[in-house]
Design a protein that fits this description.
972 residues; 27 helices; disordered N terminus
Length: 972
Amino acid sequence: MRKAAMAAMSVLLAFGLLGTVFLVSAKSDSGASGEETAADFEGDRLFRTMHNRQNYSDYLSLYESAALPDREIVVRASDYTRIEGDGFELLDGFEGMDGISLKTGEQGSVEWTVDVPEAGLYHMSILYYPIEGKSSSIERSLLIDGEIPFEEAAYLQFDRVWDNESDVVKQDNRGNDLRPQQVEKPEWREAMFKDYEGYYEEPFQFYFSAGSHKIALVSQREPMAIRELKLFQYEAPVPYAEMAKRYQAEGWKETEGTLITVQAEDAVAKSSPTLYPQTERSSPAVEPYSPSMTRVNTIGGYNWRIPGQWIEWEIDVPETGLYKIGFNVQQNFVRGTFSTRRLTIDGKVPFKEMERVPFKFKSGYRLDVMGGKEPYLFKLEKGKHTLRLEVSLGEFAPLIREVEESLFNLNAMYRKILMITGAAPDQLRDYRVEVQIPDLLDTFAAESERLKTVGKELRRLAGSSGDSEALLKTMAEQLDEMIEEPHTIPRRLSAFKTNTGGLGTWLLKAREMPLEIDAIYVASPGQKLPKGRTGFFAELRHEMATFVHSFLIDYNQIGNTPEGDGGRSITVWIGSGRDQANTLKAMIDETFTPETGINVNLKLVQMQTLLPATLAGQGPDIAMQIGNDIPVNYAMRNAVADLTQFADFEEVAGRFRPSALVPYTYQNGVYALPETQTFNMLFYRKDVLDELGLAIPETWDDVANLLAVLNKNHMEFGLPLVLQPSYPGENIPPNSAYAMLLMQNGGQFYRKDGKESDLDSRIAIETFKMWTEFYTDYKLEREFDFPNRFRTGQMPIGIADYTTYNQLSVFAPEIRGLWGFVPVPGTKQPDGSIRRDVPSGGSGTIMLQKARDKEAGWQFMKWWTSEETQTKFGREMESLMGAAARYPTANMKALDRLPWPVADYENLKAQFEWVRGIPEVPGGYFTGRHLLNAFYQVVVNAKTEPREAIVDYVQYIQEEIRSKRKEFGLPE
C-alpha cells in the first residue's frame, strides 16, 4: 500500500492517461492564466484514486479463495477499443506474424474490452515483437477497468533479444580475442506478466469478475508491436518424484553413450547486451584456454546478476530419451550462500526443482550436475532444443521483500522523529518521542521481530552465520535498545540513520546473483562428464606459464597496436576506467580505423600527467575527458590547437548546444570539442511533499515559503554543494547555485570580453547576498550526502546534477516511484515569465598543438563526438555498468537516443533549454576560489556584510585577471 499510489501516479500522469499532466505547480502568481496550479497532491484525482492500493501480496490475499477457471481467452491487439497518444499503427503480416498486429510507441495508451465468462484468477501473457528503440527493456503499466490492480503492475518489463554480431570471434593483430559486439536480434516472443524485480517467482495472477472488463497498457518506455494478449491458467511444474513416475508410465528410456558439450560463450540469445562472452585468464579449467593470449571462453560473471536476466543456448540432441545436465561453473561471487537460476527447456520448467537451481559458493571452477550424486533426468526428443538459465532470487525473494518493507517503515519513523528532534538533537532534553509518535515503539518492535526472523532464515539457507545476517542483527538490536530506553532515541538517531543506510546497501547486494559458466554438458545418465584441467598440478603449470609470459607480453596495451611506419597513426590518452578504455578501443578497431585507415594508439593514463608530459614533449596527439578549465589555460600558452582552422568546424559545432562550447572559446578560437555536458535539476520526494502539503516550487519565492515548512519539520532543502579544493591550488569552478541565481537575474561573471570580473556589479552583489542568506537565515547545510538524505526523506527536495537520477534509480530501490525531477526554480521577470537558467559542467577532447598529424587527429575528434559513436558508447557504458552509468553526452541527437523514460526526458529537455556556459578567461581560476572565500567570510565568520565581502575579494580577481593578461600580452 505504501508505494503504489505514488508509483502509479508517476507512471500515468506522465502520459496524460486521465487527461491530467503531472507537473505540480506551486500556488504562486507566477503561473500564466489557465496553468495547472493544484497546490498539493491531494488535488489530483488520480492520486486520490490510487492512494489506498496495495502490493501484489496484499492483492492476492484478497482473492485467496477465488476460483482458477480452466479457460483461455485471447484478445487480439488489433481489436482495441480506444487509443490515446501517437505512435500507434496497425501492421499486417509484420515480421512473419500472420494477421494484424498493433505497433505501440514510447508513450500513450491502448485499451481493449474483454468478456470474461467465469470469475476467478487468471494469468496473463503477451505476444510481442521488440521494435528497434533505444536498446533498453520495454516497460508498460497495466490497468484493469481504469485502475492499476497492484503496485508491481505499474512496472511490467518485456525483454529485448540480443546476440553476438558474428558467430566468429575476431582477434586483434596480437592474436588476442576481441569481445564480440552485441546486436539486437528481435523476434516474436510470448512473455508472462510477472515481477521484473524477481520478488515473486510465479507469474502474476489477476482477478476478473464475470462480465465485460477493460484492459489497458500504458507505454512508459520503448516501442513494441503486439499481436495478442491472453488470459489463461499457467500450469505449475510438478516435483521431480512425480515427473520420474510419468517418465516410467510414458515409456521414456535412458540414453547411452551420448555426451553433448556446448561452450557457454556460444549462447544464441540473451536478455541484455551486458551478457556478452567473457575472457577468463585466471584459471586453466576453462575451454578454450591459453596462458598467454586473451581468449573468449566464458559467459556471465558479475554482469549476470540482476533478477530476470537470462541466457539461452541451443542443444542438438541426437536421439530421443532421458539425459542428465551439468555445468562447468564458477560461483566465487556470493560468499557464504548460493546464486540461484531458473532452468527452462523450450520455454517450460521441466519440474519444480528447476525453478530454484542453487549454485553454492566455491573458489574456482567446478562441475555442477543437476540433482547432484543422483542426477535429475530430463526428457529430450531428437532435434534442437533451447535451454535457458534465468537469474532468480529463489528462496531469498520473500526475505528481500520483507527487508525492503522494513526499510521503508523505518525511514518513515526516522522522518517523524526528525520532525520533532531535528538532525542534531539536544542531548540533555527528553523529547518524549514515544509519546508524540504513538505508533513508534510498536513499529520498532514489529520491525525488530521481522528482521530477526529474516536473519534466522538467512542462517538456515546459508548453513551458518554470515555478514548479511550480522547487519540485520545489528539493526534489530538497536531497535530493541530503543524500545527498552525510549529516552535514548534522540541521541541514537545518527546511528539509527547509519544502520538504515546499511540496510539499503544490503538490499542492493542481496539482489545480486552472479554466476560464470564455461560449458554445458548434456549426457546420457551413465556417461562420465569431463572435469577439465583442475587440481594442484594444473594450477601450478598455469601459474608458471602466466608468470613467464608476463615478461614477454604487455598486458597494459589495449587492442590493436600500430604496425610499422607505413600508415597514419595518432596517440590518444584517456583518463577514465579500463572498461571505458576497452569499449572505446573496440569501437575504434571496429569502425574508425577501417573507415579512415588511421591507427589509434590508445593509452589509459592519469590525466594529472598531461601537463608535465606536454612540457617534456612526451604528450599525446589527442587528450580525452579533459575538465572545462584545461583547454583555455593551455590555449593561452599555445599548447592546444585551435579547431576553427578546420574547414568543417562549424558543421561539427552544430552537434552541440552553444553553451557547451562557451568554456572552450578564447580569442575567437575554440580549443576543445564537448564530450559530456551536465547541469542541475530539482529532485523531490513525492510522498514526503504530500505528507507536508507542499507543492513543487516554481520560483525562489516559492522556495522561501517551502523552507519555512521544511524548517518547522526539521527537514532540509539541498542547494548544490559548496565544493572544497581537494589539493592546494586546485581550480574550483564557480558555485553552481550562485551561478544559477546570477544568470537568472541577468548577471554575468565577466565584462568587456573577459577583461574584468563583473562580480562587483549591482546584480552580482545582490545575487551574492541572496545566495548567502540561504545559509545564514535558513541555515541550509553547506556539505551533505544528497542521495542518502534524499533516500531517508531528511532532505526531500534539492537541486543536484541531473546524473544523480541515474544513481538514485539503482541506489534506492525502496523509493521507486516516490520521487521525480523537474526544472529548477526560476526567477520571475517583469513580463511574468520565469527564467530557469542553470550553468553547465562537463568534459571535452583537445588536440595538442604539437600533434604530428592534425588532420588525422581532427578525423578522430569528429568520429568520437558524432551522433552514432556517442550513442553507441553511451549504450555500451549503460550495458556494461547498468543505469547508474548512463552517459551524459553533449551531442544533442545522441542524448535523444539514450534510453531515458519519456516523461523524465521531457523534463530534462525542458531544463536543457536554459543551460548556459561559464566562460574561461586568463586569471579566471581566481573566480571560483575567491567566491568561496567571500562565501565563508559571510557564512562561517558571520562578521562581514555580503556586499563588503564580495567587493573585497573581487579586487583580488581583478588583479589576477590584469596580471595574466599582461603576462600573455593581451590588451587590458
